[in-house]
């Protein structure tokens, strides 16, 4: 037993006062015989016996009051007998390993990590004065602990300053590192104190248990003390958002997206009517409810239509439980802005499906498309004010005049997008003369792969052979979606020169035919972009216009040429990992800020990309450009590792068998501590004694 204020024990001497009063109050009465009162003596003896008992009880209660109060003020505390703990092993160099993983944020009013810090402080308090110690905060990438020492204040400060992380903690690795630190101390006894919630994700039980070098040089098992902050609970119930997928919802209109997320219930009880919502800032854009069986997974889909384009930052949330951190998941979504497109129809026709612009117009105005289309013939369209549009499409038009070509060049230089498709009305020499500075590559001549009337046309026609699906324009066309591209048949197509003499090396071929001839070439011109499609967009030279890939590809052409197409793959990064950022053009990344405002390390790479991280917390990370201005298009969201949401605990028997029954000691945590401090019971006893003393006095 120890005392917080031992000097108050001197007050216990006051308990002698009732005893002294009792001794001095013992007066012997003198006998006075009085015959008539003899009959009263028998009754007097009975009354005297009761009074004597009453006085004895009063003296006892007063003694208890005067004894209990000073002892309570001395704050006695029952603690582990450190000497008894070292009878068999003697003093030991001790390492306290504090689990700082995400699961330690689980809370039932007080988080497991706060309980863990209390346990770590108690472990330091239990040490003998001659026992050196060290403290290690265990994370996913732990640092080696300092050698054991006797500076208890510094060790307590390490515990006080420790914070839980949002990642995993490799307790097996931490134990090995702590064991190596103990080997630096010459004391023969070694002890590892593990303060954790004992979840399965923290241990690698397939690896050998930690050992230390003994006095003779052989490897021996150290003493292991397990301090369970979960107080022996069989399970820690938890549900979590473990996955999120955001996809366009074309059926709901332009700028509509469906959020499909998976909810996993790691608990032993079913979760019913969990509220799920999509939020942007303080606004709730969609809400629903989900039921998840015990140990099961359920998917939920919510559809949201955004009123305008731009980069949207938000969260998908679940009704919070004891581990609220995994009940939300952030997202960064590039929503296409509304686009105005001018379609210059170089070959109008009274029959709609034979009109050059029919299929393009249908693709760009389909449900879910953000493009507002104006169709004009070549004579009227080329005289339009291009500055009123974001995109101009020249569909099999004759070469523009020099003045019209200058207008087009100025439009592209200022950031506009230009799409050019060829056909019978396209003269290569005239185009090269008027638009040579704009085209990705000069035109050469028309090649015919097969005539439509040829019975073997289906086998002779050209097809697309190589498509750069790593480019954002063709990124969706993988797997089964690729058939819509490579299945198209081309009867005629325009051959191109090697490169544009005015801007060598600036063009890029994204798709080729089987003979290697370019099918799609793109280039940057000033602030804008130009795309050249070497066949027709109607059915004159190919059947591509009726293929399933035509509609999404034309919409992606519109988005790409206007700069509103998301040109980077969705960044998927978990807490603790690094992320590669690829800025556009000559743009630089000056810094990355975590959700709490702290700086994330950034390192430039030889290929022009930047590596940021490791990330330390979930949520949206803001990217800053060279001038310190936000670059919203490069923002990304870091997510939690779903493995840390699984709070399945390792049974005590399993850990005992793993570390060795002869080395594991039971925790001296909450199970061995009284629920109420001893001095509280002493105060209560004094109060009760005071109450009964007053009751006896009134009788």
From TrEMBL:
The keyword Membrane applies. Residues 95-197 form the VWFA domain. Residues 1-76 form the Aerotolerance regulator N-terminal domain. The chain crosses the membrane at residues 6-24, 56-74, 678-697. Keywords: Membrane, Transmembrane, Transmembrane helix. NCBIfam families: two_anch. This is VWA domain-containing protein. It comes from Corallococcus aberystwythensis.
């Amino acid at each position: 037993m120890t005392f917080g204020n031992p000097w108050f024990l001197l007050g216990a001497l006051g308990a002698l006062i009732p005893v002294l009063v009792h001794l001095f109050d013992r007066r012997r009465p003198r006998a006075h015989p009085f015959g008539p009162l003899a009959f009263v003596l028998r009754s007097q003896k009975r009354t005297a016996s009761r009074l004597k008992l009453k006085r004895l009880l009063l003296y006892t209660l007063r003694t208890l009051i005067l004894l209990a109060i000073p002892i309570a003020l001395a704050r006695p505390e029952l603690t582990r007998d450190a000497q008894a703990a070292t009878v068999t092993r003697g003093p030991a160099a001790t390492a306290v390993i504090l689990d700082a993983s995400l699961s330690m944020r689980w809370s039932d009013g007080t988080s497991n990590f706060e309980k863990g810090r209390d346990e770590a402080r108690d472990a330091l308090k239990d040490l003998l004065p001659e026992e050196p110690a060290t403290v290690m905060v265990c994370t996913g990438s732990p640092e080696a602990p300092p050698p054991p020492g006797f500076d208890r204040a510094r060790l307590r400060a390490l515990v006080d300053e420790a914070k839980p992380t949002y990642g995993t903690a490799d307790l097996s690795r931490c134990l090995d590192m702590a064991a190596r630190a103990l080997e630096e101390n010459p004391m023969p006894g070694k002890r590892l104190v593990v303060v954790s919630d004992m979840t399965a994700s923290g241990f690698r039980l397939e690896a050998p248990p930690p050992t230390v070098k003994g006095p003779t040089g052989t490897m021996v098992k150290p003493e292991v003390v397990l301090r369970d902050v979960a107080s022996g609970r069989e399970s820690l119930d938890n549900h979590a958002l473990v996955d999120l997928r955001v996809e366009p919802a074309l059926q709901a209109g332009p700028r509509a997206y469906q959020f499909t997320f998976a909810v996993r219930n790691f608990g032993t009880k079913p979760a019913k009517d969990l509220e799920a919502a999509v939020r942007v800032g303080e606004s709730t854009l969609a809400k629903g409810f989900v039921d998840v069986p015990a140990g099961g997974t359920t998917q939920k889909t919510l559809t949201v239509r955004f009123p305008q384009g731009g980069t949207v930052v938000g969260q998908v949330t679940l009704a919070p439980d004891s581990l609220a951190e995994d009940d939300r998941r952030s997202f960064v979504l590039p929503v296409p802005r509304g686009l105005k497109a001018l379609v210059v129809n170089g070959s109008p026709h009274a029959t709609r499906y034979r009109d050059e612009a029919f299929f393009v117009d249908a693709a760009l105005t389909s449900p879910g498309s953000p493009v507002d289309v104006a169709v004009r013939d070549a004579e009227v369209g080329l005289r339009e004010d291009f500055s009123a549009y974001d995109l101009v499409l020249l569909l099999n038009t004759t070469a523009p005049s020099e003045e019209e070509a200058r207008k087009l060049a100025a439009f592209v230089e200022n950031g506009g997008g230009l799409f050019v498709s060829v056909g019978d009305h396209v003269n290569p020499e005239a185009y090269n003369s008027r638009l040579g500075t704009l085209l990705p590559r000069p035109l050469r001549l028309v090649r015919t792969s097969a005539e439509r009337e040829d019975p073997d046309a289906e086998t002779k026609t050209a097809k697309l052979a190589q498509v750069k699906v790593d480019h954002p324009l063709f990124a969706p066309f993988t797997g089964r979606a690729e058939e819509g591209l490579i299945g198209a048949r081309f009867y005629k197509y325009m051959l191109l020169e090697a490169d544009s003499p005015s801007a060598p090396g600036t063009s890029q071929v994204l798709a080729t035919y089987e003979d290697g001839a370019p099918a799609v070439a793109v280039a940057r011109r000033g602030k804008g972009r130009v795309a050249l499609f070497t066949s027709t967009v109607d059915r004159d030279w190919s059947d591509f216009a009726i293929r399933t890939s035509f509609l999404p590809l034309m919409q992606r052409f519109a988005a790409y040429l206007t700069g509103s197409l998301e040109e980077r793959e969705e960044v998927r990064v978990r807490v603790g990992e690094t992320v590669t950022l690829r800025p556009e053009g000559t743009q630089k990344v000056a810094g990355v800020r975590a959700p709490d405002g702290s700086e994330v390390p950034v390192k430039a790479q030889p290929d022009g990309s930047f590596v940021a991280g490791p990330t330390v917390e979930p949520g949206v990370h803001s990217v800053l450009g060279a001038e310190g201005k936000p670059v919203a298009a490069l923002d990304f969201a870091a997510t939690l590792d779903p493995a840390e949401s699984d709070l399945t605990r390792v049974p005590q028997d399993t850990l005992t068998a793993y570390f060795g029954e002869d080395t594991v000691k039971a925790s001296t945590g909450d199970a061995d501590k009284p629920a109420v401090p001893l001095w509280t019971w002493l105060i209560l006893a004094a109060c009760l004694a005071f109450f009964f003393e007053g009751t006896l006095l009134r009788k």
